[in-house]
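Sequence in, structure out. Go.
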Amino acid sequence: MTELIQANIQSFFDSFWTTTVPLLIAAVCGGFVGLERERSRRPAGLRTHVLVCVGSALLMQVSLAMYEMAVLRGAGNGDPGRIAAQVVSGIGFLGAGTIMREGANIRGLTTAASLWVVAGIGLAVGANMYLESIFATVIVMLTLKTLSEVEHRWISKGGMHTITVHVSDSPGRLGMLATVCGRWGANIRSVSMKNSPIPGTVEISFFIRMSGRNPDTAGLIGDLMGTEGVVSVTEEE
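Output:
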């Protein structure tokens, strides 16, 4: 009886290591990537990435278990990669949901890519490829955190500028400023608004890319300063 109890306990711990621990590792790996996306205020954040990674790990475990059952029972060779392939292709609907079009610009591609790679990490964890999963997570984090800064510096040298305008808080001001930017060939990549320390005004920041015919922002800033309701215009490095 004692040997039977010990065998059951050992079986429990073996099962715990092969099933529960991979799901926990997947949650941690997905959580790291999701936390970075959450801090960047992206559509798919911490919870989404954790769920995708854990779900992928679980499906990979199911795929391997079905393969083992098929082989042991002599029901056929089985294909452990079939479910994994469906995960890789099926994750596309979540990625598509994070991609947004804003005028001529598209946002969310990086988040969609992070969801796709997190699904791959989950599959690797489910296949007990822990070292590869952790290494992939490190590469993803370095890509999202470090390369974004490098990308920003390279882009800023290629005609990207941040123009901050303090303008009177009244209807139609945003459209008026956007029209001025368009007149100077500035492609607006993103716009943010917040309360201004100057009473009666709002602070509007334009992240723009100047066209080849007007690479300098001096004319644009001068035109913005002459726009009705504008109090001040500054350009950030």
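Check: Residues 150 and 234 are 24 Å apart (CA to CA). The longest helix spans residues 2-39.
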